[in-house]
Amino acid sequence: MTDPLKILHDVFGFSTFRDGQEDIVRSVLAGHDVLAVMPTGAGKSLCYQLPTLVREGLTLVVSPLIALMRDQVAALRHFGVEAGSLNSANDPDENRRVADAVRDGRMRLLYASPERLANSNATEWLARSGVSLLAIDEAHCVSQWGHDFRPEYALLGDVRRRLGGVQTIALTATADVSTRGDIMHRLFETEPRIFIHGFDRPNLRLAMQSKDQSKRQLFAFLDKHRRESGIIYCASRNATEKLADSLCQAGYRAMPYHAGMAQADRAKNQDIFLQEDGVVMVATVAFGMGIDKPDVRFVAHAALPKSIEAYYQEIGRAGRDGEAADTLTLYGLDDMRLRRSQIEDSDASEEQKRVERQRLNALVALCEAPRCRRQTLLAYFGETTEPCGNCDLCIDGVVLFDGTIEAQKLLSAIVRTGERFGTEHIISILMGEETDAILRLGHNGLKTFGVGKDRSKTEWRSLLRQIYALGLIALELSEYGRWTITERGVAVLKGLEPVELRADVLMKPRERKSRRGVMAAESVVPGDDPLLLALKTLRTRLAKEEAVPAYVIFSDRSLVDMAVKRPKSAGAFGEIHGVGQAKLDRYADAFLTVVREHAD
């Protein structure tokens, strides 16, 4: 075996591991199966790429998208690593190169889609080729509880067995307790080593606003991010086209992306976004998975995402380089109605629809949270944190009122019905509605029956979401969406702790106070620094010449490091972040020339 730290520096150009990587790498090298949950941008790929280079054997990587395979293979080959993929976009020469490298034992990492691996011939060939590690990216797709369940991913447990029970590492950024349990059940015969390295992305500023002239709100946000790369998500294809046109007229370099576009047009726009700086991609959710561009400085949602997991994954495409990045989500009642109708009109099973309803409710609770958004978001994934100071609620504050009585009414109704019911049944009790279920169960005789007639159903739903965001109640997602009371909720019910709730989300939109303010990402080098701009221009030219994303040449962090250190020799260039031996040999002369031209 070779020293992992030496390979980390010599191949990838990194002097140290990122937080959480080393424990996972060491566990894989020790021969353990692994399930790793790490936030987007934490460097999950390195957790299987590095062990592959430390020891002998072929690593088979399951990846959901051809574009993602293409970019990762290109990045590895730029690091001097033999890598390839099995996909329908390969030309005959590439297929021949891959087959020869696998046969000769030179191939180190081979990427394939789950659909390709479902073919028994392909799996048998790979089993004969000596696969020593199976790496499953986006592993939440395995689970029916995951927000992006894919039936073909559910077959991977069988693929693993056909490969001889090969050592496996499954990686994801979004997996709650139910999803993690399902992944383990479907993929592993025995419990793997589990690494949960947190869901927090402290470099992301979180902000949400109820819609009030949404186009104006978006433009106010974007005005802080001119000449920066970012993504705006829209709910429909038509909306992406219209907004991209409006942005172009306002002087932004914006382009649309959605599934209704011709494949060639989508590919062209995606390549421009990946290779050039200062591009705004206006897209539906068809764009994003596998987009590993590290210098995305903002992500905005022009409409409510479909779930809290989708929101987390989509904002996670900003700031993957660890630098400050900005997010904004706009939401309105129309968005909520649209998302609910999409769930009800889908072909999913009733069980899956129930899960999706609860996920949407959790997202709306985040929108209406009365405390730090990061606290509410992380609580959904089972984590606790102090107020972050980097979200709109921490920075701007909200209009609050003493909601102790309202909270106690909700908590009492939940307790008196045995903590066995969901939102609508609890609210019907408070409203005094004699539904069939309430009459059959005798809940019209409870002390809390009818005590909430002073408020509307819409207000009670908001109040319930708020006490959920505060951690007074918990949602049992895998048990029919029933509400249970937490220890803190018990304290509130007994009158031992007061509760403050948001008044503004109970008001009509025009009554709300408008609270704005966004924070642009800052760097140690100004964005208009002449050397940094020249380095980016060179990177763009090389990326176009080699037909790869710009980050495959060098990340923004590497360029900033060059602009700060201004290396004068190949040896000094080799100490720049992200410069391994292969990139030193390939690019040192070109980038050193630019640095020398700006020596003064």
What this model shows, in words?
With 600 residues, the chain is of the alpha/beta class. It has four domains: 4-196, 3-Layer(aba) Sandwich (Rossmann fold); 204-369, P-loop containing nucleotide triphosphate hydrolases (Rossmann fold), CATH 3.40.50; 400-502, Winged helix-like DNA-binding domain superfamily/Winged helix DNA-binding domain (Arc Repressor Mutant, subunit A), CATH 1.10.10.10; 530-597, DNA polymerase, domain 1 (Orthogonal Bundle). The chain is built from 27 helices and 18 strands. Helix 18 (404-416) packs across helix 22, helix 19 (423-431) packs across helix 21 (457-469) and helix 23 packs across helix 27. The longest helix is centred in the middle third of the chain and has 18 residues, at 350-367. The protein is globular. Residues 509-523 have low confidence and may be disordered.
Structural class: alpha/beta
Mean pLDDT: 87
CATH class of the largest domain: Alpha Beta
Fraction of residues in β-strands: 5-15%
Helix content: 40-55%
| First and last CA, distance | 46 Å
Shape: globular
Count of helices? 27
Radius of gyration, CA atoms, in whole angstroms: 26 Å
Q: What can be said about the biggest beta sheet?
A: 7 strands, parallel
CATH architecture of the largest domain: 3-Layer(aba) Sandwich
Give the neighbour order of strands across the main sheet.
3-4-2-5-6-1-7
- Low-confidence spans: pLDDT under 50, at least 5 residues? 509-523
* Total count of domains: 4
The total of beta strands comes to 18
Q: The CATH topology of the largest domain, please?
A: Rossmann fold
Let me know the CATH homologous superfamily of the largest domain.
Answer: P-loop containing nucleotide triphosphate hydrolases
